[in-house]
Amino acid sequence: MNTSTDRIEKQILLKAPRSRVWRALANAEEFGQWFGVNLTGKQFVAGQSVQGNITYPGYEYLVMDVLVERVAPEHHLSWRWHPAAVDTSIDYSLEPTTLVVFELTEVEGGTLLRVVESGFDQLPPARRDEAFRMNDGGWGQQMTNLEQHVAKG
């Protein structure tokens, strides 16, 4: 992890071809299987929003809402969202979003996946540290989830 308070960086070597990792990221329904969100019948298309109910135990009351920024098949997927938006009594729509970028690189032995979420320093000070802490831990868990998912084939 970078020591910056503005960005979270994680990377993992996945023992799978880039095309397999891409499918796990870019197919919204498959993404939802490992990420813990119901995105059945949805697609990641640049410029469009995608929403789905969280399926992760304890967070089922939440809706994930992302605005897809860029899709470059087998190389790059990025979106904007409101990180750690877990209090349903708060309207997060007035807050700045963070940018989540997935980058795939073919390497010997598989695919190197790099995930960077940036923009935390623009969040309201009252929730900046908690959002960073929650997402830092969350991305670590999601990398493990993805690794297990692609290992199944």
Annotated CATH homologous superfamily: START domain
Describe the largest sheet: 7 strands, antiparallel
Highest-level CATH class? Alpha Beta
Radius of gyration: 15 Å
* Terminus-to-terminus distance: 28 Å
Structural class: alpha+beta
Could you tell me the mean pLDDT?
Answer: 95
- Helix content estimate: 25-40%
Beta strands, count = 7
Question: DSSP helix count?
Answer: 3
- Choose one word for the global shape: globular
CATH topology term: Alpha-D-Glucose-1,6-Bisphosphate, Chain A, domain 4
Family: Belongs to the AHA1 family.
Organism: Paraburkholderia ribeironis
Domain Activator of Hsp90 ATPase homologue 1/2-like C-terminal: 15-150
InterPro entries: ASHA1/2-like_C (IPR013538), START-like_dom_sf (IPR023393)
Summary of the model, kept short:
Helices cover 29% and strands 33% of the residues. By secondary structure, the protein is α+β, with helices and mostly antiparallel strands. β3 and β4 (63-72) form a beta hairpin.
List keywords for this structure.
alpha+beta; 7-stranded antiparallel beta sheet; Alpha-D-Glucose-1,6-Bisphosphate, Chain A, domain 4; single chain; 153 residues
Report on the structure:
The protein has one domain: START domain (Alpha-D-Glucose-1,6-Bisphosphate, Chain A, domain 4). The radius of gyration is 15 Å and the shape is globular. It has helices spanning 18-26, 28-35, 125-151; strands spanning 7-14, 37-38, 49-54, 63-72, 76-81, 98-107, 110-118. Strand 4 and strand 5 form a beta hairpin. A seven-stranded antiparallel β-sheet has the order 1-7-6-5-4-3-2, with helices on one face. The protein contains three helices and seven strands, in the order βααββββββα. By secondary structure, the protein is α+β, with helices and mostly antiparallel strands.
